[in-house]
Design brief:
This protein is α/β, with parallel strands linked by helices. The protein has an eight-stranded mixed β-sheet, sandwiched between helices. It has a four-stranded antiparallel β-sheet with strand order 10-11-14-13. Helix 2 crosses helix 8, helix 3 runs parallel beside helix 4 and helix 9 runs parallel beside helix 11. The termini are far apart. A hairpin with an 8-residue loop joins strand 10 and strand 11. The radius of gyration is 21 Å and the shape is globular. The chain is built from eleven helices and 14 strands. It folds into two domains: 143 residues, Aspartate Aminotransferase, domain 1, CATH 3.90.1150.10; 217 residues, Aspartate Aminotransferase, domain 2, CATH 3.40.640.10. It binds 4'-deoxy-4'-aminopyridoxal-5'-phosphate. The site of 4'-deoxy-4'-aminopyridoxal-5'-phosphate (PMP) has 13 residues, from helix 3. Keywords: Aminotransferase, Pyridoxal phosphate, Transferase. This is PLP-dependent aminotransferase family protein.
Length: 394
């Protein structure tokens, strides 16, 4: 009998499951001595102290409800409402990371060949999951204030997609934040069609200097159903894998069943600790400290970038989130550039893998600023600039 993996009768969708460049790079980025601008890892020294929030109740060691802990759902409903989207606890589902919400949404909405609109560029692991379930991805070009609503309207009219996936606040990878006007008009456009909005909002609390309230687009919708995804990975601990979704009431029964089929429920002690933190007197002070720490790092990266990339690239200073997005003027930053920088101990994310569809520009790069010290930024960016010029000249 042949037991080789290639002879196994795998599902046809496995052919659509692409390896993730981020995972490959993160595998090497963790090695000692490597300067990594590649991942989206929050800074360990800025994570709030959660010792007071751990719940010793051993009842939490038992199986729990697929929807999530009652205390978690009500604390999260208040949190989402505080962030501008009024929801009831019954509209909240605890997730094992907001990534799980993308998986559940894809299972709910995507069949083989289903058209789905995403920003271009967009979050790699969302594209990966949509494509796994057979989506035919329709790229929507993203500008610094968001996408052009008229272009979205034309895509919706022409292709009648099942859903539209947007990351309006500190988008991954671009860092762009939709303007208040674009948010409102996009909601009006969506309400004229019947696509479900999936709004992904994991970076909202890493807001450094945006002055408008970053109103969730879901909050403006009057007619079409929506799924809003949030995360505690960027502000508390990614390793705890606690996120959430809120959704229109008519979608909730399906999402709860999909969650049950996926992993029964999110781990209860972590939900309890997060719920306690949300109600903790220190919460806002923790967030203020986190933002102050990220502001310093973002500014240090900006200074180092001006020195090493001033002649090579254009970029906007991100007003939140964890990334700089560089557009090289004449050079390329491809996989072979990455091989060259890796040989010199520096990793970054070439931008091309974030583009859905066949057009993949090779002149963009995503640089994380939250993990490196100012000295590492200096050294790492000097090496990056050097390699980019050398590889492009070769
Ligand atoms: N959405 C976006 C846009 C992200 O950048 C990330 C994390 N990199 C996630 C979702 C998933 O986050 P988590 O599962 O840790 O909540």
């Amino acid at each position: 009998m042949n037991h080789s993996p290639t002879a196994a009768r795998l599902a046809t969708r496995i052919e659509r499951l692409k390896p993730s460049l981020v995972r490959e790079i993160l595998a090497v980025a963790n090695k000692p001595g490597i300067i990594s601008f590649a991942g989206g890892l929050p800074a360990p020294d800025l994570m709030p102290d959660m010792r007071d929030c751990i719940d010793p109740d051993t009842a939490l060691d038992q199986y729990g409800a697929s929807e999530g802990e009652t205390a978690f759902r009500s604390a999260v409903a208040e949190w989402i409402t505080h962030n501008g989207l009024p929801v009831a606890p019954s509209q909240v589902l605890a997730l094992s990371g907001s990534q799980q919400g993308l998986d559940l949404a894809a299972k709910l909405l995507i069949d083989d060949g289903t058209p789905v609109v995403t920003e271009s560029p967009s979050y790699l692991a969302a594209l990966q999951v949509f494509e796994l379930f057979g989506a035919s991805v329709l790229p929507l070009a993203l500008g610094r204030d968001g996408p052009d609503p008229a272009t979205l309207d034309a895509l919706l009219r022409q292709h009648r997609p099942a859903c539209v996936y947007l990351i309006p606040s500190f988008q991954n990878p671009s860092g762009y934040c939709y303007s208040p006007e674009v948010r409102k008009v996009i909601a009006e456009v969506l309400d004229r069609h019947d696509a479900v909005l999936i709004e992904d909002d994991p970076y909202r609390s890493v807001s450094l200097d945006v002055t408008h309230p970053m109103q969730p687009i879901c909050s403006y919708l009057k007619r079409v159903p929506w799924i809003y995804l949030g995360s505690f990975s960027k502000i508390l601990r990614p390793g705890w894998r606690v996120g959430y979704l809120a959704a229109s009431p008519q979608l909730m029964p399906y999402l709860v069943r999909l969650k049950q089929a996926s992993d029964l429920h999110t781990q209860r002690p972590a939900q309890a600790a997060v719920a306690n933190w949300l109600r903790h007197a220190q919460r806002d002070a923790d967030l203020a400290r986190l933002r102050a720490g990220y502001r310093l790092r973002r500014d240090a990266m900006q200074t180092a970038l001006e020195r090493h990339f001033g002649d090579l690239a254009d970029w906007d200073v991100p007003q939140g989130g964890l990334f700089f997005w560089l557009r090289l003027r004449q050079h390329q930053a491809t996989r072979s550039t990455l091989d060259a920088t890796l040989a010199r101990g520096v990793v970054f994310m070439p931008g091309e893998s974030f583009y859905p569809g066949p057009m993949k520009p090779t002149n963009t790069m995503r640089l994380n600023y939250s993990l490196s010290t100012p000295a590492e930024m200096e050294r790492g960016l000097a090496i990056l600039a050097d390699c980019i010029a050398a590889v492009s000249a070769a």
